[in-house]
Amino acid sequence: MSFLGAIGAAQKEAMDADERVVIIGEDVEANVYGTTGAGKSRKDKGDFLQMYGRNRIRNTPISEEVIVGAAAGAAMTGLRPIVDLSYSSFLYMAMDQFVNQVAKNRYMFGGQASMPVVFRSAMFYGLNTGAHHSDRPYPMFMNVPGLKIVVPASPSDAKGLLRTAIDSDDPVLTFEACQLWGLKEEVEEDEYRIPFGVARTVREGTDVTVVAIATAVPEAVKAADALAAEGVSVEVIDPRTLVPLDSRAVLESVAKTGRLVVADPAHKTCGAAAEISAIVAEEAFDALKAPIARVVTPDTQIPFSPALEKQLYPARDSIAAAVRRVAGARPRELALS
């Protein structure tokens, strides 16, 4: 099953299970992005609009502030909306709704109102879509109390985490890396859920911990494969959810390896990599055998030029270089120590 197919499957399961689940957003009736029906990868699954009708599948105007505000109101009155906001970069247009309404509602009303709404958006970085469409804005929302932040990196996680998000009585933002949409793997056909705050150990190792996010996950695995031939054993951890963050999994891994590299496609300043690095520095400084290294995107606008953009994000070569740097000059001895 593909990453997109897994999202479609999770949405269909949730809509079949609970008539309060509705999908609204940009072009969801026409299934433009392939998650609401009979797209190329899900021809046999049926069209959501035909199956559930316009009361539960509805297009919205291209006005992100209106979409987010309407979804918040719908959630407060009993529905459980899944909102497709298409580009993550467009979330900025609805910052007031996100920050002052969606995130603060439960607190402002003393817990009398809940906000069971999921906001899906896709990060189109690495596809030469220019500065307005290429952002990876999850760190900005990590800075807003009251929001849960999900960044799946595999089809299985995309399905299981989305089911958990739909069940949540609090607002959840999911950030999907568009480059992973075509990724395929075996995914359980039956219903399942992946709890928030539980990281995935993608690959076990003993010399260096690499915490990787979104597209950095498969790149970190490829780097680990290459480094294994050099005698360096790399453990790759995918946090899956950044809020809540499975700090324990990261700290336990660093306690074992003594070295940390964080690979994060977001910008360097105040990014997820900065937060993870700070937690390890605060909680596990004594375990560190080398300074922490971050492999991130420089604090610059994203160029349209394919040749320039390709150099910005964490890739297997840059991750491997960081691992070699923290591992020291004699990596073959690490596996023997």
UniProtKB/TrEMBL annotation:
InterPro entries: THDP-binding, Transketo_C/PFOR_II, Transketolase-like_Pyr-bd, Transketolase_C. SMART domains: Transket_pyr (SM00861). Its cofactor is thiamine diphosphate. Keywords: Oxidoreductase, Thiamine pyrophosphate. Gene3D superfamilies: 3.40.50.920, 3.40.50.970. Coiled coil: none annotated. GO terms for molecular function: magnesium ion binding; oxidoreductase activity. Residues 1-183 form the Transketolase-like pyrimidine-binding domain. PANTHER family: PYRUVATE DEHYDROGENASE E1 COMPONENT BETA SUBUNIT, PYRUVATE DEHYDROGENASE E1 COMPONENT SUBUNIT BETA. This is Alpha-ketoacid dehydrogenase subunit beta. It comes from Quadrisphaera setariae.
